[in-house]
Specification:
single chain, 318 residues, mainly alpha, Multidrug-efflux Transporter Regulator, Chain: A, Domain 2, 3-stranded antiparallel β-sheet, rod-shaped
Length: 318
Amino acid sequence: MDGDALYSIGDLARRTGLTVKAIRFYSDQGIVPPAGRTPAGYRLYGVEAVARLDLVRTLRELGLDLPTVRRVVEREVSLPEVAEAHAEALAVQIRTLRLRRAVLTAVARRGSTPEETELMHRLARLSEDERRRLIGEFLDSAFGAPGDAGAEAFAGIRRSMTPELPDDPEPEQVEAWVELAELSRDPGFRALMRRLADSHAAGTAPGAVPRPGAVAVVREEVRPAVAAGVDPVSAEAEPVVAAVLARCARLAPPPGGRAPADDVVGGGGLLEYLETVNDPRRERYLRLLAVVNGWPPPESLTPSLDWTLHALRARVTQ
């Protein structure tokens, strides 16, 4: 057949691989109009119909809707413009599917109830602004809202505790975000972080029981003892405990001199502060935060804190 030949709908089906029903549908939609009809009224199509149908099939397989396909075929809109818009839409769909997969994976792993599953799904679908608002409320409850008295002192801590879920997150990041969001909504955890913030602020006042820096002291002094398997209530542990107390006493000495080392233990001092710091929810938040933000996992302070607390409780009861 030459370029002026006309094809029946059956000819088009054989040349394009589409069904007669599909070609008739596209023809009825005006996407591939007939070039003429036989004396008996059957449709006939020109050679350009083959190219149109090939393009239509490709665009449909890529997921474009019929109105958009018609606009492309009729050159009302350029194919690159449509491709760019469709690629952006697909990116949103892919992100949505990843969120759903992460939620379903978490549900299967955790054996969640229907109520927990609904909450997880809702948290995973939050927009970036909604996520920031949720975390902002949590941080405000712990450290005070920006502009509040004393809140400026915690600006750096706020930044370091803010999760930033990527635009194209991995499933484990989505799962970590959901758990972190649940944890940030826990009134008990919010109260815990508020106590830590209050204790931090109180420990910076002149003559106050030293708190800021105490965790770093414990990490440095106690970690070797933990690694060596030293019993925290043994005689071998006594020099380690004494070093911790002496260094903590020097962190915030009262006006006119240093506090006796033993004075930092009881009365709402070091022991109570380290017990609060050692709450497993605090470490869990930091681990989840690292996953969401793509940071290296933080060092666990639990072994050193457990050791120190055991030693201090034994000292207080002596």
